[in-house]
Amino acid sequence: MKKIIPAYLRVIVLFFTIFGAIEYFIDSGDRAAFIKFPIVNVILVVVLVLLVAIEIVISAADTIVYQILPEEEKAKLAAEEKLPLKESAWFKGLMNKLTRTVPIENEASLLLNHDYDGIKELDNNLPPWWVYSFYACIVFAAIYLVRFEILGADNQEMELKKELAQAKIEVAEYMKNAPDLMDEKTVTQLTDPADLAIGKTTFETNCAACHKADGGGQIGPNLTDDRWILGGGVKNIFHTITNGGRDGKGMIAWKGTLKPKEIQKVASYILSLKGSNPKDAKEAEGDLWVEETPTPEAK
Ligand code: HEC
User: Fold this and answer.
1) From the CB of 271, is ligand 1 less than 6 Å away?
2) Residue ranges per domain, the chain?
3) What pLDDT, on the 0 to 100 scale, is given for residue 182?
4) Would the CB of 190 count as within 6 Å of ligand 1?
5) Does ligand 1 lie within 6 Å of residue 210's CB atom?
6) Region labeled Disordered — which residues (predicted)?
7) How far is the CA of 234 from the centre of ligand 1 (A)?
């Protein structure tokens, strides 16, 4: 057979095919198998060396066989080597197998013995590539029918729905454990004194200028009463701190400056100030917030 693909390309293609197969079949979670399991690297190196070795052996064997060929065979081989791919015996053989055409000179052997006003008919074979594709379709249809209509496997829509549901569960799980990921839906009020102390520090550094160190309020509203302009409860307060107050009021969004976990702590700290009645506190503003009322549209 004529060598269509050069050896180095064959090695590369085979190597990456094996590499791909390894990655596909070894379940290595979110990291590539060759990073997670160092042994995979060893296997890959061995595979590569083997592939190169096999190519060398084949090429050596070819050379030896060529040496012992009689002269006329050598000449034939050399001539074959020079032919373009489409002219090669291998390609012609393949085409013949796929089409089984009869050369035009032998057309008479196919002629059917009827004649419609001079129109004659040839009885050509169905081309094998067509016949085999047809059989493959029948096999496919049978498997499809059994799998989806009888055994009730998931169709694409169902698969997508299941994957989305699973992804939702995973995101929720991730949000629960991720140290710095949290939103107003998942935030909970902290009561641990250590957390509140951190919240207090954050408050004194960033917020006291407007809300006063005791939370009594100055430029910003009083945070120690039970009235809230933008909604009370940890979820609303988290939302306000994250996204800021109403436009032009002076309360900026802190989401770039503070991490969600820090916002959670400072929000919890603010909640712990409730009822502390600091001296010279600002008048209460906003609506009375009673926990367990349905969350009003914050802002
Ligand atoms: C530049 C001044 C300023 C700073 C600094 C500031 N705030 Fe405010 N804050 C305000 C103003 C003004 C409002 C009222 C916003 C409105 O009415 O929309 C407000 C509103 C709030 C509210 C909602 C109050 C309510 O009644 O609904 C919370 C909670 C709050 N701030 C927390 C904080 C926290 C926590 C920080 C620090 C990380 C902070 N603020 C820093 C000015 C400030």
Assistant:
1) no
2) 7-68, 106-150, 193-288
3) 78
4) no
5) yes
6) 276-299
7) 14
For 174-219, write each residue's pLDDT tens digit.
877 776 677 888 888 999 999 999 999 999 999 999 999 999 998 9
pLDDT at 298: 47
| CATH hierarchy code of domain 193-288 | 1.10.760.10
Among 87-96, 241-250, 268-277, which stretch is predicted with the lowest mean pLDDT? 87-96
Report, as an integer, the average pLDDT of 266-287.
90
Measured in angstroms, how far is the CA atom of residue 251 from the centroid of ligand 1?
5
- Beta-bridge partner residues of 227: 288
Q: Which two tokens stand for residue 68?
A: 């012992």
